[in-house]
Fold this sequence. Notes:
The protein is α+β, with helices and mostly antiparallel strands. It is 28% helix and 25% strand. It contains eight helices and 18 strands. The protein has helices at 8-21, 36-61, 69-76, 182-193, 201-209, 245-255, 303-315, 324-334, and strands spanning 90-95, 103-104, 110-113, 119-122, 126-127, 133-139, 153-158, 167-169, 214-222, 235-242, 261-262, 266-271, 277-282, 286-296, 321-323, 344-350, 359-361, 366-370. A six-stranded antiparallel β-sheet has the order 7-3-4-6-1-8, with no helix packed on it. It has a three-stranded mixed β-sheet with strand order 9-10-11, with helices on one face. Helix 1 packs across helix 2 (36-61). The chain starts with 7 loop residues before the first helix and ends in a 5-residue tail after the last strand.
Amino acid sequence: MLIETKNAKSFMEDMKNAARKTENFGPDFNVDDNSDWYRQEYPKALACSNLSERITDMADNMDLSKANGYWFWKGASNFLFFRKLPTASQSIVKAVDCIVGAKAQIGEIKLRKKGTDIIYSNLEALEVLQIPFTFSIASETTGSMTNAEIGEITELISSPENWGSSFSNIEKAEGGQDLETLEEGRKRYFNGNNSDNFWNTDGIYTAISNLRGVKSVSVKQNNKDTAIDGIPRRSVHCVVDGGIDIEIAKTIFLKCLPATFTYGEVRKTVQAINGELIEVGFDRPVDVGVDCKIEIYGHDNILEVKNQVIEYIATVGIGGIVSRSMAQEYVASNVSNFSKYKNVDIFFKKDGTTTWNSFIAMGNTERPVYKEMEE
Length: 375
């Protein structure tokens, strides 16, 4: 439904014309902006203008592709789609100088990430049976700042007796996530519901995207009996940025069809309903530099366009295609009066290559990031 929005001045013009046409007012009737009639009628025009804008906003917000903030989440929740809330990170810690028999209740061991105020505590009740001893921890606060590299969680805040003082996380702390932004949620909603992939990749994609800490996902499948594009026969290849390894593996296992293989450098074991242990594989993305070259005939200043092309590269995602046509479309939608530029040509070069091309197909695990290179 297309609704025309008018400002107060436009409404006043309509009211002027209507006033001149009535029996009581002749063609010389004073409707100037400083007239008594104008001052009397202007509040009515302003009210009509405000009402028109509200009606237009409501109509736009019924379309999820345009909806803002509250309206987007209100509409999306009708489809059981909700905003991803902040989450805590998890990791595995090794204790090396504790004593066999030492015990701790949930949350009694508190550790801190180096150089921060972020506290982590044990997730389960513990009893040391052998040394070294490993156990799971989770951050007591939420957000991406709770994620940590191996060896960053070492400072002891408190623990019961006989636990010693030497602790260190032996796996990355992952899964910490900030409150999802409107744009991130919109992208996740439409990618998950408008997928044209066959088999079950749309379900796998959506399920992994909904996991805590996951920023982006690429899911590709091969349902043939021979390898295609580097993907083994009858298999699903998932590349996931962010999230917790074991949660991702469990989700892939639950969402894959029977007799489906998975592969990737990250390997985790999950338990099937019959007790069988199944190894599930997936990959993490690898950032690969991509440079851009802009040629605008008749213009020397290409900075405005180049900045938009650099932003476009960041939107391509894992395993995508960096292309001239999509870059031109992105620039045209973000640069005002783009038509002033004639014959805009855009070329790309991938790190490790020497040739400029109109498009670059990224590998299954590759994610393009802008990198300025020498000619």
